[in-house]
Amino acid sequence: LSCVMAGARKGDVWVTLQAHPNVIAVAVLLELAAVIITEGAQPDPETLKKAEAEDVPVLTTTDNTYVVVTKLAALGVLGASS
Description:
44% of the residues lie in helices and 13% in strands. It is α/β, with parallel strands linked by helices and 82 residues long. The protein has a single domain (2-74), classed as Udp-n-acetylmuramoylalanyl-d-glutamate--2,6- Diaminopimelate Ligase, Chain: A, domain 1. Strands 1-2-3 form a three-stranded parallel beta sheet, sandwiched between helices. Helix 2 (21-30) links the parallel strand 1 (13-16) and strand 2 (34-37). Helix 2 (21-30) packs parallel to helix 3. It is globular and about 30 Å long. The relative contact order is 0.21.
């Protein structure tokens, strides 16, 4: 969580393998556009309920984080350090 707290900007999409409720709290605090949870991790009902209440889109994929970031970059979606 500390890495995203230090580097994410408003409107960014967070790609992570973390799926707990604190992910949503951080996304709200940083005003992130969405969270993509990787490697088949599934958020629990509490996390999804919090995401819905806070209007944070949560997407999941079985791809690993590297693959997701590579695909996003190929589409022109670049991160904060780009």
